[in-house]
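Recap for those who missed Tuesday's class. We walked through two folding examples back to back. For each one, the amino acid string is listed first and its predicted structure tokens come directly after. Nothing is annotated here on purpose, so try labeling regions yourself before you check the end of the notes.
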Amino acid sequence: MKREQISVGSYTYPYHSLDFFLDSMQRLGVQKIELWAAEPHLYFADCNYYESAQIAQKIAARGIEVCCVTPEQCMYPINIGARSRDTRRRSVDFFRRAVDVAQQMSAPKVLVTSGHHNYDDSAQDCWNWCVESLGELADYAARRGVCLVFEPLVRPVDVVTRAEQARRMLDEVDRYDSLKGMIDVDESARFGQSPADFLRAFGLERFGHVHFIDGMPGGHLVPGEGALPMTRYLEELDQAGYTGDISLEIMNERYYAQPEQAIQKALDFFEEYLNTHN
């Protein structure tokens, strides 16, 4: 692992302004971020193209690179596999806007998750609608030079929760030029899976992003403050030759009042790993 692979997500700062987050990154010497596109930082419904361009300029002026734009899609009513055609259309348009914002920010990636269904709906129908939506989005992203990274979620109503399911869905979409797999190590630990499982499922060429956080599992904690084998996860990535982004998605209420302290602890964890493994 190299320092250049480390990225910090703005998730830890939901009760601070975007300016505060960016200033915090400068204080910590962070040069690469993952931008959580949500209120109060950048909510698409309240931010036009001119305003998002201004945000892009603000980030670039600080010498910070955006590695991924991740629109909020769990708390907001977004579902690319919804039964309702109108909901699916609105959700696809939401992600198309994310691709446009990523292009404005010279960010190479946008994160997207699978759709979900009601317990009394058909999981297969949801799966098919997800494939259709992802195909449309992957085509849109490819024409703008942006890659979608696809994250399985943990809820039982999500049609993709494991590495092998994610690979099967992306195979059905068949657009690996602009659609790759990724892992959230805390989410995947709930199913007993680790980076090695995802790398076996996708291979390096089709694997594009890592959310790196500790958990019980569950919790999205600072590395070292949960029960997960975080050092082993980094070793698995290293052994496979992964050279992509490793992004901190620390999002737990215990950190929200003093987010900079949490990020510093996480960066210290990476520094210790680098000192002992390089």
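Example two. Treat it independently of the first, because the proteins are unrelated.
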Amino acid sequence: MTLKNKIILIAEDEQFLQKIMAQKLTALGAKVLTASNGQEAVEIIRKETPDLVLLDLMMPIQNGFDVLKITKADEKLKNIPIIILSNLEQDTDRAHCKELGAVDYLIKSNVPLKDITTLVISYLEKNETK
């Protein structure tokens, strides 16, 4: 699958990681938007309605948990797949994010970039068939 015509938001405050993921997804044809804090992420989600969000939990201004809650509470936005990318390894954090509506929860340090892009493609394909 190509990511042509797909909009993906990367909400990540680590600039290096944000840039690497954006380059990889752009090379696959996606339109990639980026946010460096939670407030910016919510604004972009509301304005652009991306096809998928890669969301860090520990961000300035507004954390990823809040972004997830706000997005999933909005009728227009609640079906956007949100994949959590975090360094928080607690099972309670993982369970809380699933409860709030995240489709997946990945530990950044445990997942190679190519696996993230494969997962993005997989979730976008699933969402297309709904």
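Answers for example two:
The first helix runs from residue 15 to 27.
The chain has a mean pLDDT of 92.
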